[in-house]
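ok new one. same drill as before - structure tokens go in, u give me an amino acid for every spot. 160 of them this time. try not to just spam alanines like last time pls lmao
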């Protein structure tokens, strides 16, 4: 009988406690497959330079590190103070193409934002097929609007 009371108490304890949602912070920079190939080639060049003691390989390795650092800094500058607002259509039908507009607000004082792509991940097809919209240029203190044709496959996707 004591065992039954213990199991009832244990069950009640979990029923009162809400399930915790795991929140993960998005990394500030993501690596693509091309970036991972570049980093592996860079490590190979570094190992080859240490093995052979050739100055040319050290120079190429240093150049590759410099390009990686400049790329990271420039991408941080492009995305800093860039706000995105998504505008959904008034009416959308599941399976029919609709136009979603993205407003990119560049709040930087001097620097433009160049070559920004935005995509929406949708369920199981998120990593195989993505609809991508591309922003070529958003001048400083300006707003650029980019439309994207999208075919919604579920009703719940249109929730803002």
């Amino acid at each position: 009988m004591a065992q039954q009371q213990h199991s009832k108490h244990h069950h009640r304890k979990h029923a009162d406690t809400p399930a915790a949602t795991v929140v993960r912070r998005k990394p500030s920079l993501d690596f693509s497959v091309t970036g991972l190939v570049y980093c592996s080639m860079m490590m190979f060049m570094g190992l080859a330079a240490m093995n052979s003691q050739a100055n040319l390989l050290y120079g190429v390795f240093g150049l590759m590190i410099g390009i990686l650092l400049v790329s990271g800094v420039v991408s941080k500058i492009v995305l800093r103070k860039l706000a995105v607002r998504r505008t959904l259509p008034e009416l959308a039908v599941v399976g029919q193409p609709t136009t979603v507009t993205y407003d990119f607000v560049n709040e930087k004082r001097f620097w433009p934002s160049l070559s920004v792509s935005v995509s929406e991940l949708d369920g199981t097809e998120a990593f195989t097929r993505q609809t991508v919209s591309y922003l070529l240029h958003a001048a400083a203190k300006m707003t650029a609007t980019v439309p994207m044709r999208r075919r919604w496959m579920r009703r719940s996707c249109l929730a803002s």
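The two ends are 51 Å apart (CA to CA). and btw The longest strand covers residues 97-106.
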